[in-house]
Amino acid sequence: MASSKEIQDRMKSISDTMKITNAMYLISSSKLRKARKNMEQVHDYFHTIRRSIGDILHHIPEMEHRFLEPVDGPNFAGKRAYIVITADKGLAGAYNLNVEKKAEQEYHEHPDARFFVVGLVGRHYFQHKQIPIEEDFLYSSQKPTLQRARQITVDLLEEVRNESVQEVYIIFTRMKNGLQSEPVMMKLLPLSRAQFRHKDMGLPEGDEPEVPEEFFPDAVSVFNQLAPITMQGIIFSALTESYCAELNDRMVAMDGATKNGTEMLQQLQLQYNRLRQGSITQEITEVIAGAKAQKKKRL
């Protein structure tokens, strides 16, 4: 049985740990609010870009482009590339593991695919599993910015133009609610025509957007400019959603750790009180026994 000194030392250690978990909870909560605010600030801009592409495809539905899936449907199959978004640190529950397992499953199904991993935890996991990744693709997942999304877009488009890859997918984490998140895989290239349909652009059903039917200098040139921006928006959204999910999972994990620490402190306090009560009882018994012995000697 542990001594009272050992119990007190353990209680102090748990109390110090709870200060850390509580601080991490508050920090994650503050960062989560900022990340959501940044996402809301650029949402309208990227939505407008998507609607512009929807306008082009509405007026020229037969348009073919290397960044766009064929008119007859997504029957294209080629070498794949995956952008896998993980965190730079742990202590976020199963956040990293869920994404890593999904990416590993894709690797077993497509062993010739190329993996572009964002975040230190994911890079270490893939290296440990001896899954080949792009070593020069070094990006952090902390505090997503438009500039970082733009650089990732440039790197991927260069691979597509060099015909190193034909299809690009992005694996990230999406928040289902305040307590749960799930890994999601989305096709990035070629762009799906379905995501630019008018009814998906926020318009009432049967309504037509008031847009010009002429594009300068031509529709293909306009699409060449808008497609990379659309990819940048999707990547930025995925980075931000993953970052929000990471912070939310860390909040849940730290809140659970703090509650567990409180329960452990209560149990240890009860154990300490019982041990101290037993020690006091033993001391009183010894004093009474000594007093009785002295009384007998006098008699």
From TrEMBL:
Q: Which SUPFAM superfamilies match?
A: ATP synthase (F1-ATPase), gamma subunit (SSF52943)
Gene Ontology BP annotations: proton motive force-driven plasma membrane ATP synthesis
Q: What terms describe the molecular function in GO for this protein? A: ATP binding; proton-transporting ATP synthase activity, rotational mechanism
For this protein, the record's Pfam families field holds: ATP-synt (PF00231)
Output the superkingdom of the source species.
Bacteria
The record's section on CDD domains has: F1-ATPase_gamma
Q: Which UniProt keywords apply?
A: ATP synthesis, Cell membrane, CF(1), Hydrogen ion transport, Ion transport, Membrane, Transport
**PROSITE patterns per UniProt:** ATPASE_GAMMA
Tell me which GO cellular component terms the UniProt record holds: plasma membrane; proton-transporting ATP synthase complex
Per UniProt, what is the membrane topology? Peripheral membrane protein
Q: Where in the cell is it found?
A: Cell membrane; Membrane
Q: Which InterPro entries match?
A: ATP_synth_F1_ATPase_gsu (IPR035968), ATP_synth_F1_gsu (IPR000131), ATP_synth_F1_gsu_CS (IPR023632)
**What job does the chain carry out?**
Produces ATP from ADP in the presence of a proton gradient across the membrane. The gamma chain is believed to be important in regulating ATPase activity and the flow of protons through the CF(0) complex.
Matches recorded under PANTHER family: ATP SYNTHASE GAMMA CHAIN, ATP SYNTHASE SUBUNIT GAMMA, MITOCHONDRIAL
| Subunit and partners | F-type ATPases have 2 components, CF(1) - the catalytic core - and CF(0) - the membrane proton channel. CF(1) has five subunits: alpha(3), beta(3), gamma(1), delta(1), epsilon(1). CF(0) has three main subunits: a, b and c.
Q: Which NCBIfam families match?
A: ATPsyn_F1gamma
Q: Which family does it belong to?
A: Belongs to the ATPase gamma chain family.
From the Swiss-Prot or TrEMBL record, give the protein name. Answer: ATP synthase gamma chain
Its taxonomic placement starts with: Bacteria, Bacillati, Bacillota, Clostridia, Lachnospirales
Annotated gene: atpG
